[in-house]
Amino acid sequence: MIRVLLVDDQPLVRAGLRRILRPRAGFEVVGECQDGDEVAQAVADTLPDVVVMDVRMKRMDGAEATRRVRLYGGPPVLVLTTFDDDDVLSAALRAGASGFVLKDAPGQDLVRAVRVVAEGGAWLDPGVTSRVLAAFRDERPLAPERQPDGSLTLREVDVLRLVGRGLSNTEVAGALHISEVTVKSHLGHILDKLDLRDRASAIVHAFDSGLVEPAR
Q: What are phi and psi of 109, to 5 degrees?
C-alpha cells in the first residue's frame, strides 16, 4: 500500500481523491488536511509516502507548505492544480515538489502520478508543462555551463533524457538494460555535475536543454 496524505480546502475534492486512491488500487489515505498550515504536523503524525497537495488554499498555499515538508527531508509532494496556476506551480517546483497533475486529469493519470512520485520519480502534466517551465526559467535563468554537453557521459545523457520524460528509476533501468542501482548512481552524478537540487529540477533541465520537448 502507498500511504497518501490529502491536502485540499474543498471537502468534495478530497472525497473524489479518496474514491480514486482507494485500497483496491493499492493506496491508503492516512490523513487529510484542509489547509497548508496543517501539513507539517499531519506528516509527522501519519508518516505518508506521498503528499497530494492543492496549490491554492486560504491560510498557506501549496508552495510554502511544500517547502516546509521538504525542508527536513519529508515525503515527496505531488501538487494538484488547475490550468491557469503557472506562477504558483513554478514556485512549488522551486520549493521541492516532485511534480504536478491537473485536477481535471483522468483518474488513471492521478493514480500513475502518485505511484511514480512514491517511487522517487517526478510527474509533470504535459497539459501545462511548457508554460510552467517558461515561468520557472523567467525566475531562475539557465546558466550556459549547465547544458548537457561534455560534462555528462553519453549514458548520463540517456538517463537524463528518460528522467525528463517522466520515467521512474525502474522504468529507466528497463529501457537501458541496466540495474536500478546504476540508474540511481548515474542520476546522482547528473545532479552533482549540473548543480541540480532534485529530480524535478533535472526534468526542468532536460526540457530547457532540448533533450525533451513539451507535449503540444
A: -70, -40
CA-CA distance, 80 to 184, in Å (whole number)?
Answer: 27
Element (H, E) at 95: helix 86-95
Beta carbons within 8 Å of 202's beta carbon, 6+ residues apart: 122, 160, 163, 164, 187, 190, 191, 194, 196
User: 80-131 pLDDT, tens per residue?
Assistant: 987 666 667 777 877 888 888 888 889 999 999 999 899 887 787 766 666 6
In DSSP terms, 6 is beta-bridged to: 32, 52
Q: Which residues pair with 2 in a beta bridge?
A: 27
Which residues are CB-contacts of 49 (< 8 A; sequence separation ≥ 6)?
2, 3, 4, 75, 76, 118
- Which is it for the CA torsion 68, 66, 118, 90, positive or negative? negative
DSSP state of 153: -
* Cα(26)–Cα(116) distance, integer angstroms: 13
| pLDDT tens string 116-175 | 899 887 787 766 666 666 666 555 544 443 455 558 999 999 999 898 877 778 889 999
The whole-angstrom separation of Cα 161 and Cα 148 is 10
Give the distance, in angstroms, between the CA of residue 203 and the centroid of all CA atoms in the same chain: 9
Q: pTM of the entire structure?
A: 0.73
